[in-house]
Design the sequence.
């Protein structure tokens, strides 16, 4: 391999046509807080710094089935409908990664989104390069398909998407409450609704959690989630193996100390799967019925977990 071949980054381009105005598409891509809802590989996004037209963000996402995280700098150009990005700290085997979102108006109601990438592998390793190429291709296709589906079904999103939060006040320390939720490997011993648990944390602060949960009717279902931990105040997660009534489930636990102890909260954001409502809840069931059912099931488990966390933390005072 010549020096020029080694120094030249590899490039890739993917595109999709979306039945939505270009400005609306741009806004959705610019608002990174919503990425876990829009893009299947994205677990969580956090702002590191934010200025006029420029920002630094931390992204946790899956690539070829592995959870990774990196920091990126973005330059936003709302007039030009372009967002350039560059990874500041990449994760092996990536040596450098950057690119751009370019939104092109095709008409007042249709736009073309181009997703550009340039990348290099550490030491130009051929296996590493092949891994990156596959990850870029898979994630780009997934992201663009999800972007298209999300925007084009926006008129239904308000009815099918909902968020809620449960809060319990605890006479204890935020660290003890955080530890209880963070130590999910012990949940099968600590929580009656958890039948079994498998927790791995190959990278500190980035967990893979597989759990068998008992429902109120005695049945069990298996879910898999990725969790991002921020000691001792927040744990964010995204479920990737979902129950039949959901197409999306993200959320976070927060632990805020106040004069009375700790306000411990569990927040959920859900998108309902309308295709399974009749099968699960009966032919006459409505979207409202499904929403109530899912809300009740998730809230029951969250409140149970928070209740046991309260007993644990108050017992350690």
Sequence:
């Amino acid at each position: 391999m010549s020096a020029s071949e080694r120094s030249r980054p590899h490039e890739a381009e993917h595109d999709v046509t979306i039945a939505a105005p270009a400005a609306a598409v741009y806004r959705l891509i610019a608002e990174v807080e919503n990425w876990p809802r829009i893009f299947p590989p994205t677990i969580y996004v956090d702002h590191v710094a934010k200025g006029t037209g420029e920002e630094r963000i931390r992204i946790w996402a899956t690539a070829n089935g592995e959870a990774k995280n990196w920091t990126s700098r973005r330059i936003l150009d709302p007039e030009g409908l372009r967002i350039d990005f560059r990874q500041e700290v990449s994760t092996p085997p990536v040596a450098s990664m950057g690119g751009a979102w370019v939104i092109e108006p095709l008409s007042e109601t249709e736009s073309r989104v181009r997703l550009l990438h340039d990348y290099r592998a550490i030491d130009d390793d051929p296996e590493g390069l092949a891994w990156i190429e596959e990850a870029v291709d898979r994630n780009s296709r997934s992201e663009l398909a999800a972007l298209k589906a999300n925007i084009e079904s926006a008129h239904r999103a308000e009815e099918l998407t909902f968020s809620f939060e449960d809060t319990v006040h605890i006479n204890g320390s935020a660290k003890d409450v955080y530890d209880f939720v963070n130590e999910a490997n012990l949940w099968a011993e600590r929580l009656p609704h958890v039948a079994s648990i498998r927790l791995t944390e190959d990278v500190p602060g980035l967990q893979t959690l597989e759990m068998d949960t008992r429902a109120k009717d005695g049945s069990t279902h298996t879910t898999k989630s990725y969790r991002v931990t921020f000691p001792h105040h927040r744990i964010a997660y995204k479920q990737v193996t979902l129950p039949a009534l959901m197409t999306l489930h993200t959320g976070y636990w927060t632990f805020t100390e106040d004069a009375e102890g700790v306000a411990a909260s569990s927040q959920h954001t859900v998108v309902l799967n309308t295709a399974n409502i009749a099968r699960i809840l009966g032919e006459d069931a409505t979207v409202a019925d499904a929403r109530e059912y899912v809300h009740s099931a998730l809230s029951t488990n969250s409140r149970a977990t928070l209740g046991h966390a309260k007993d644990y933390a108050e017992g350690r005072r």
User: Anything to note?
Assistant: The longest strand covers residues 246-258.
